[in-house]
Structure formats: structure tokens, C-alpha cells
Amino acid sequence: MQIPPQLMPEQDARERIHNVDEVPQGYTEELAKTEAIRCLQCKKAPCVAACPVEIDIPGFIKAIVDGDYRSSINILKETNILPAVCGRVCPQEEQCQRTCVVGKSRKSVEEAVQIGKLERFAADWEMEQGEAEVPEVKAATGKKVAIVGSGPAGLTVAADVRREGHDVTIFEALHKPGGVLIYGIPEFRLPKSIVMREVENLQKMGVEVKYNMVIGKIFSIEELLEEEGYDAVFVGTGAGLPLFMRIPGENLNGVYSANEYLTRANLMQAYSFPETDTPIARAKNVAVFGGGNVAMDSARTALRLGSENVYLVYRRSRTEMPARVEEVEHAEEEGVKFHLLQNPVRLLGDDNGWVKGVECIKMELGEPDDSGRRRPIPIKDSEFVIDVDICIVAIGNASNPLVPDTTPAIETNRWGNIIADEETLKTSMKGVFAGGDIVLGAATVILAMGHGRKAAMAINEYLESGAW
Amino acid sequence: MNKILEKEFITPEVFRMRVEAPEIARKRKAGQFIILRTCDEGERIPLTIADGNADGGWIELVVQIVGKTTKALSELEPDQGICDLVGPLGRPTHIELFGHVIIVGGGIGIAPSHPIAQAMKAAGNRVTSILGGRTKDLVIMEDKMAAASDAVVITTDDGSYGMKGLVTDAIQKMVDDGVKIDLVVAIGPPIMMKFVSLLTMKYEIPTLVSLNTIMVDGTGMCGACRVTVGDETKFVCVDGPEFDGHKVDFDEMMKRQRMYEAEEKESMDRYLK
Asked: How many CA atoms lie within 13 A of A137 on its CB side?
């Protein structure tokens, strides 16, 4: 008899919109073992090749089958320093699980082995044991590496470079580490304690984290190399300037970029205002524009901040939504109202400069565009108004200008993203590597980590050989 | 944690604070700002750097108590620390030899105009500073500004000191007297910057204003600080804080600054209780 994929218990939707606790609650040992048995232990495992950091997936799953959870987590950590994070936020259904032979044989990616959930299980098991095992660090080499940004790319580079015995200093612009893992992804999807724990583990390895340091302002990249004595620099500054829709009314009060809305709620803990000092607008009717994970995070955050009606306005249909299916389903279960095939054309304000409505136009799908998705076309004279008190624009980010502006030697493309070699992540400036969203534009945590791994290998090699 | 070295109240609502920040002191240029947090639950607020000394390793802030965070900051004493301090942020003032530069500082805005006056003078400009306040006590840093300027004009709304009137009256008088003005740099309350800009636009005098909007990260990531300049949306934290005063939509900016009025009051009332 075939075993179906094991579902992970979740907090009830009616309950969870009143708290910020995590939604999926993790596998029990029994569920994990049942799921792990589903893995065929393929010799030529396609899932490994489909993983940006090439985790030995059959290996860590076999260890779960054997009940040897310590080995399981150690196998994961050989290539992925953030398994508790990746187990939660990776789009496995588009990567490892998409290629899973079990899923293929049943002609459904949903039937694939639940690799992500098993990864999370092993990582959570380790956390329950108390202190994590600190990876071994080789003898000091006397070489120094500066990492700009403590997001997923930077943290990965830090671990892999430190392991080789190099001194590592992370420069973080904000007052907390983690980048998007802290300011962007909400607590209910990724508890902040997990990120803090991973950073503490890096610190135990001897990685130094300096907060409130904006590279490009306090030091230029050139100064890091020439005056501050660093032998190599990794730039992982992440996403930059939030994009707006360039429609009338976008600077009205109550209109947020998703970055701002989520940063206030997550990094600044505005959900606890007035116990904390950072305010966030709370209102009955909220519109979120966009169809990605960040849009879902924003909409679900608005529900948790007490909004009654949260509309998600997206110009294409559900099929084209870039968000993970799981996130779309979670949002829908929680009561987010989907306004598909609609596009905002202007925001309407009251006399005090507050947004009070959004005028949308209905759309239909035409021929596929460059992205392969069917192009949305406005339907003439179909405009209508939704009453809202808050709007959240979640349509992506442009690049952050701070490092490129002050470092002309680093080449950028026409969108301002840093150009880096695909394999080595070397930039056009000697000794400087870059990865994650500053190179990719808005991508995912795991792709940033994949960059981090490649960059770390290249940095270690560069420090060893001195050859650029 | 940045150690507080000195604190002095200039008026009951305005204080000067010298803070240990050696790296910022070395790097900061005229026109730049910092963001600070006073405690772990604190908000991030931007403050323009009023002075600094690279050798001494300190910067100075001149702060008006307007809400909870500035109130809490005012209660910190020397040897205590500021939880988080990040900077220098923003683009420095564009300094070159313009000729005759008028620096207009209104109230608390006098403080951030001080390093700009210094830098403009050092670049060879003739600097006239116009310092305005509602009443005599609110005209701060007169000595320092005098040292950084060739001439100082004082205006007070109530006539208790200097010329009775607004800073715009002083500019108008200069124009009427045929004084050649090559650049105006105005820093102060938005309403002052708006009317200075409207006046200088009439006479086609290039005018820079320094905006102090609501910010969160201060590195271009969130967009809380956005303003309309000409027909573009700009981010004060990375594109500014200085902009062409003739192009800034001050009315929109003033509305945006009031976005959290109710919450700011709630937070302050709770703190004072």
C-alpha cells in the first residue's frame, strides 16, 4: 500500500489570525518517520541536483528513518547552515520536491516526499536538544573577510569562510541581524528566535557581527580592503528601493511599501505598540497589491493587526501568482479576499491626505509575455472603487544604491544590480564578491544561500591562492 | 552602545548632546544625519548631525523634545549610552564656491545648518546666516553661527530679539536692498522651508532645503521617507536629505509627517504617566 504524504499539523485559521505564532506546528517523530520511509533512496537522486545548496537529501532522510537525528542534522549542516530556516521558507515544490521520483511516479508534485518538512523536523529536533554543536574551525590563517549584510547570503558565506580559519566580520546596517529573515518574513512563518539562534551559533564559531554599520557610508568597499585590512569582501546587501506603481495618490498617508509595513511589524515589533514605540496604521479595510510571497505576508500581517477586510489585488489570475501555493492557501484560509484580474489605477484620498479608496480596473489575460505568463490587458470602462484605509504595495524592489554609488569599480547592470560571475560570484573589482538579491533582484532565501556557498568556495580559494 | 559625553539644555525643550562615535565623527560631512534608538523597544528616529570632531571622536546632536523618543533621550545623562546609533546617512551637502550663500536656520533647524555654514565658508563663499525663532530664547547657537558666517541676521516673530518678523522678511529685505544672493540653504520647520522656497522661486535664487521626514531603516529599503520632488518620488534617506526647494511638494510632505500624530501622542502620554 502506498503511504500518502504526511500532513503537518497547523494552527486553526480562526485562532491563528489572533496571534503571531507559527502556523505549521512541525512533524511529530512518528509523522517524520512515516514520511521519511516514503523516500526511495534513489542512487542518482535528482532532488540533490535541484537543490541550490545540494543537500544530501536521501542521506539526511535515511538518518531520520534510522532514528539517528543527530546524523540527520549533521548531514544537513554540511551544506546548509540554516536548515531550520530553509525547512520553513524554501519553495521546495519548485526545487527538490519537483524532481522527486515518488511525485513523478504519481504524476503530482504534491505527492513528492515532503523534503522541506523533514528538513524542518531534523532542525527542530536539534533545537530541542539545547545547545547546537558548533562546527569545527580550522587553525587561524591570519586572513580577514568582511561580509556586508547579515541576510541569508551573508550568513552562509560567514559560516563557510570561517570554517576554513579565516577571520570573519559581518557589517549589518540595522540593529538586528538576519536581513530579510528578520525584517521581512513574519514571525508566523519564521520565528525570529530561530534566526537569532543561528546567528549566535556563528558567533560561537568566532564570527564577529557589527551592527549599525552602513557600508558605503561609514566605510567604502575600497576602505575595507585598503585601510581596514580585509583581504576579501562579500557584498550581500539584499533588496533595495521598494517599487511603487507610479499611479496617482501613492504618497497618501496609509500607503505603505510592503518593505515598510513588514519592517514596522517584524523588525520594529509595531504589533506590540504602544508597549513598543514604533507605530503602524491599523484599520478595518486594507488592500494589498501584488501576488508574491511578500504580498501574502503583508495581507496575513494585516489580518493579525486586526483588519476586518483584507483584499489582495492582483492583475493576473491565480495560476500566474508567483507566491507559493502553501502561502496562497494559508492566506485564503485566514480570510484574505482575492481580487484577481484587477489592477489599481489610482488611489483616492480624503481632505487630510489619508487614502480612502482604490480605483481598480478589471483585466483579462492575453498572449504570454516575456515571462511566459499571459499578459494582463485592461478591460475598457470596467473601473470600480474599493473602500480602503490602508494600501500595501508589494510589487517588488529595485536595487539598493548604497554600495554601487560609492564604489564605481563594481559594475552593475541597467537595473543597478551588481554583476557577478555565476560560478564564483566575483565582481569586476578585485577581492570583491557579491550574491543574493543585490545580484539577483528579488529572489529567494535559498537562492541567496546558494550564492553564498559558491561565493564562500571562491573566497576560500582566492585567499589560498591569491589568484583573481 | 554609544556613550553620552555631555548634555546641556539650551531651552527647556531643546538640548545639545555630545555622543561618542569615533567612526561617524571621522566620516560625517555637512548635511548628513544619523538614526538612533534609545532602547530595545525603541523606534528609529533620524537626527541631523549638528557638529563633530574627528580627533575627539564625538558628534553633537541638537534635539527638540517632540515625542517619547526625544523625551527619553533628553533624560539620558553623561556616561549613559544610546542603545543604537547609525550613520552617517544621506548624501552630504554639495559644497562649492557659489559666491554669496545665505544660510537660513529656523528654530531647531539652526543646529544642522551650522556644519553647512562652516563648509560653505571653508569653500570660500561669503556666508550670511539668517537665524529665526518665535522668540529670543529659541534663537540658538548664535555664537557658533557667527563664527561660521560673515554676517548674521536674527529674526524673531515677537520682535524680542533682532528684526521683528520671519526669516522670509529678512530675505525679502536683502533682495530689496539689492544684495546679490547666489544660493539659499534653508533648514527649519517645513512651513518655513516652504515659504522661503516660494519667495526665492520668485527671484529665481537657487534654494536647497533639508528634509526631516519619518524614516525606518534609513538605507533606502522601506520608502517611509518618500517625497514628491518635481514629478518624481524621491527617498529622503538615500536621495536626500537635501533637495531643490523649488521642486519639493511641501504640502504633501507636511501631511505625511502627521501620519502618526495620534500614535505619537498616545506613546508620549503613556510615557509621562
From this structure: 18
